[in-house]
Write a structure and sequence with these properties.
Layout lengths: L1 H27 L3 H34 L6 H45 L4 H6 L2 H43 L1 H7 L2 H39 L1 H7 L2 H27 L1 H25 L5 H43 L20 E9 L5 E10 L4 E6 L5 H7 L8 E6 L2 E2 L5 H6 L1 E5 L9 H5 L8 H10 L3 H6 L17 H15 L3 E5 L7 H15 L3 E5 L11 E6 L2 E6 L1 H7 L2 H13 L1
Parallel strand pairs: 3-8, 3-9, 6-7, 7-8
Antiparallel strand pairs: 1-2, 1-4, 4-5, 9-10
Helix pairs in contact: 1-11, 2-3, 2-5, 2-11, 3-5, 5-6, 5-7, 5-11, 7-9, 7-10, 7-11, 10-11, 15-17, 17-18
């Protein structure tokens, strides 16, 4: 059994070593100067702790026992000096180490966001926002605790134990050998709990991420929760997750707390041995009261950092579980990236062409099967078809949110995989039914992606997007903050802000993804008029359920089950009396 435990502990340490080395190399070593200063201060603090224990000998023997008044003031002042120095250096290394810990959190958060902001769209679809937020908030906090306590513990506690053990051996080496057995036994017991704590910590963070995700969804969907009367259902979901976290944290505490009674029993046995053996030595005149008191003080003072050093394994295991999750996130490589030698996309003739394009999602479902069509420069083409036909998939492939499984998409004759992502997307404007409005001012939302625009340009664009009038009616006009997801604006207002943003960008290729599908009739009329102004002179690809919005499109492509089955303008498609005619007839019946 012991052999098995030793093998498990060795395996855990082996698995943790690469994490520790990477953490040190990436986030700790850049601040090695601060670390050296902190370690030097810890060394001084440990030396003063040893001096405190040693000073008890002259206090007891030369002042109290010998009643030597001349020694009273020198000894007392020396003790005061030792305590003062220890207090000052402890303050110094605590400030430095906490600053270092916070700097590490800042660096990790910065690196994670810089990594995630370039991650594939599919990554965000497969990872709930709550789990990602948990990485930024909870995991980085645990990482900070493990780093600060780990470095402080290894430094200060180790130095303190060394100095105090030196005092113990100086006072009585035989008594030291009798009592020091406590240290390795306590270390072994505490180390065994580390692996269990790491597993519990991992599960706790997963549940915390789930809680964050549920809370985020509930707050964003508050209107729907109330309209469907599902408050009790949401309460049950939250309560279940909260209870699960409670059970995990309680279990973690039980595991950690189990160390305390074991350590106290061990220390009690050691003190028992010290008093019986040391007391006998004092009685027979082989030692002095001062030496024994100094020894007991050194042992007691050493046992506390020893427990902290042993408990450090538990803290480190929980922290390393968080570090492991953070590094796994940072190690995810985007599949959509610039090819070696990718060039800038320079468009003279904004023709978009799909040639025999096939696309299969990671789960194996085939969305497109040999799709070929062309969007001529400056023309508007529309993609129509039943839900699931592949329309929105095409719009995701053109700006390379996903890459084609087979076939080619080109812009002005250039394969979009051979140009840089930045230049490709800079030449495209996207307006979709899922409007991205940030909790910022109207002005900043309009200029998002197009910084440095003048006030005249912003106002002119807002007027073209039919947004200027309602903006002026807001409390602070263009400086009005719109709330999270633009909650202070109506659907039509949010959409017109989105159109103004696309107008200001003024990209030669425009992608419209059901931009009016969720609007009322009046908002749709205003938005549609703004879209028509936006489309002028641009190559536009439109996806729409409402066929009335694309009647004037130059070319309409009808998709079914991932294939183009018909193409032409509105009148020619009606004359074919095929799939488009059936879709248009169904729409007319619905609106009649």
């Amino acid at each position: 059994m012991n052999k098995q435990l030793q093998t498990t502990s060795a395996t855990a340490m082996t698995a943790s070593l690469p994490l520790v080395m990477r953490l040190a190399r990436t986030y700790i070593m850049p601040y090695w100067r601060s670390l050296i200063v902190a370690m030097a201060l810890m060394l001084v603090s440990a030396a003063m702790t040893g001096a405190m224990a040693k000073m008890l000998e002259p206090v007891m023997d030369r002042v109290f026992t010998d009643k030597n008044e001349k020694m009273l003031w020198p000894v007392a002042l020396t003790v005061l000096t030792v305590f003062t120095i220890r207090g000052l250096v402890t303050y110094g290394h605590a400030v430095i180490m906490n600053r270092l810990g916070q700097r590490i959190i800042s660096d990790v958060n910065r690196d994670m966001f810089a990594h995630l902001v370039y991650a594939d769209l599919s990554y965000f679809h497969n990872h709930p926002s709550g789990q990602l937020l948990s990485r930024f908030i909870s995991d980085t906090s645990m990482m900070r605790t493990a780093t600060v306590e780990g470095l402080t513990g290894l430094g200060k506690n180790t130095f303190t134990i060394i100095f105090l053990v030196m005092v113990m051996f100086y006072q009585d080496w035989r008594l030291s050998l009798v009592s020091i057995f406590v240290f390795p036994v306590a270390f072994y017991f505490v180390h065994r709990t580390g692996r269990r704590l790491r597993k519990v910590s991992t599960n706790t963070q997963v549940q915390t991420g789930d809680l964050t995700s549920i809370l985020s969804q509930s707050f964003q969907g508050a209107r729907h929760i109330k309209s469907y009367g599902t408050e009790e259902f949401e309460k049950h979901r939250i309560n279940k997750t909260v209870e699960s976290i409670f059970q995990l944290i309680t279990r973690s505490f039980r595991i950690s707390a189990s160390v305390a009674p074991f350590a106290e029993v061990l220390s009690g046995l050691a003190v028992f041995a010290i008093i019986t053996y040391g007391g006998h030595q004092v009685i027979i005149g082989q030692s002095t009261t001062g030496k024994l008191v100094s020894f007991i003080a050194a042992f007691i003072l050493a046992f506390d950092p020893m427990k902290r050093l042993a408990n450090l394994n538990n803290t480190m295991q929980m922290g390393l579980a968080a570090v492991d999750r953070l590094f796994k996130l940072l190690d995810v490589k985007p599949t959509i990236s610039d090819r070696p030698g990718a060039t800038e996309l320079h468009i003279r003739n904004p023709v978009v062409r799909l040639e025999d394009v096939t696309f299969t999602y990671p789960d194996g479902s085939e969305a497109l099967r040999g799709v070929s069509f062309e969007a001529p420069a400056g023309k508007t083409i529309a993609l129509v078809g039943e839900s699931g036909a592949g329309k929105s998939t095409i719009l995701n492939l053109i700006p390379r949110f996903y890459d084609v499984t087979d076939g080619t998409i080109s812009v002005d004759g250039q394969d979009i995989r051979d140009v840089t992502l930045h230049s490709l997307r800079q030449n495209m404007g996207l307006v979709s039914q899922e409007v991205a409005i940030f909790n910022d001012t109207i002005r900043d939302n309009i200029t998002y992606g197009s910084p440095g625009k003048t006030e005249e340009e912003i106002v002119a664009t807002a007027k073209q997007a039919a947004a200027h009038e309602f903006i002026l009616e807001l409390p602070q006009g263009y400086d009005t903050r719109v709330g999270e997801h633009g909650v202070k604006l109506s659907g039509g207002q949010r959409q017109r802000i989105s159109i103004a943003r696309a107008m200001l960008k003024n990209a030669p290729i425009l992608l419209l993804d059901e931009a009016t599908s969720s609007l009322d009739a009046n908002s749709e009329r205003l938005v549609q008029a703004a879209l028509e102004r936006l489309q002028k002179g641009k190559t536009t690809i439109v996806v729409a359920h409402r066929l009335s919005t694309i009647i004037n499109a130059d070319i309409i492509y009808v998709l079914s089950h991932g294939k183009v089955i018909e193409s032409g303008n509105h009148n020619s498609l009606l004359a074919q009396n095929g799939a488009y005619a059936r879709l248009y007839g169904s729409m007319m019946k619905e609106t009649a």
